[in-house]
Amino acid sequence: MKILHWTDCYYPGPHLGGAPLFVSNLSQEQRNNGHEVMVVTEQVEDWNDHDNYDGVDVYRFPFTMAALDGNLKEMHRLSIAGAAIKNKLQPDIIHVHLNQVTAWFDVLSKSRAKFPSIVTVHPPIGMTSLPETMVRRILAENDIIVAVSRSQKNDIDHFLGDDSKTRVIHNGIPPIATQVLPLPFKPAVVLCIGRLHKTKGFDVALKACAKVLAERPGSIKVIIAGNGPERENLQDLSEEFGTAAELFEFRGWVDPDEVAVILNQGTIVLMPSVWDEPFGLVAAQAAQMGRPVIGSNIGGIPEVVVDKKTGLLVQPGNVDELADAMLFLLTNAEFTITLGENARKIAKDRFSMAACAANYQSIYENLLCGEKLC
What we know:
Layout: E1 2-6, H1 18-32, E2 36-42, E3 50-53, E4 56-61, H2 63-69, H3 72-89, E5 93-98, H4 102-109, E6 117-121, H5 132-141, E7 144-147, H6 150-160, E8 166-168, E9 188-193, H7 202-215, E10 220-225, H8 231-239, E11 248-252, H9 259-263, E12 268-271, H10 281-288, E13 293-296, E14 311-314, H11 319-330, H12 333-350, H13 353-371
Helix pairs in contact: 1-13, 3-4, 4-5, 7-11, 10-12
């Protein structure tokens, strides 16, 4: 099968986030399964218009610049160029990834190049960077809509007033070669991993960690791995904790290949999001490494973190509840270890990239079968 992914960013894009990393991993899994995989994505800096990464042909266009400039002539040119690359590649299926403006150029090119297509919605449906009218058009112009969690499906169906086109496929994560190490407890290591943005609730995490240290001095050290607009504010916040400030370590941006290494250093992973997290990649990665997660009971996180079985769920933004959950796990080491073991078993079955790719394959085949009336 010839699969064309239409996405905002693709490996080796700078500082890949969850959605671009997922598209890269899915593409490689599909290629390993014998499919011909191609990618249309955003032009970055002075990179080549066409490259090949690990057998995946990548074609880049300056979609975002044209949209930001409001250059209608350039947008028209790019819609024609998008149609031309589709007609040249002749994919069996186009898999659009809705995140930012690139998905809109797929819509603009459809009148000149119509192929069976599905769209995966990566952000919360009300928090894309596009106007609502564009989002509705993108969803309408694709044959199948995929949500990355049941929570997100509910939001999409409410947004559209129709659930007939929406399916759920949880994101997958590739297997790891890193040997899983035992959880450390002397001291315990609390990990916060992700983009340092207000929506991630890392300020809540730091305040909760400070409360734990006030009650049990020296019991934990805290690693914050990631970068983003809130880094300076979070560092300033940690410095307000007096002598405990030295127990907060900011690692900065982490290469995706190094996430497993950092997770191996941790005892507990915090995912204190204060927005409707669509899926919760970090929670799945932590589970894969046998690390229990304390996560916010919001969005898709409860579909990854099973309360009292693979981790604990707390109310978003509640510092005291998060601190109490950490203290409970610190004082119940055997239970904490069991949570991690359970998480690892569930992640292997539920969040593998192989299972994710197989689910997408089923949707592709059903769609193509319908197109061919087989």
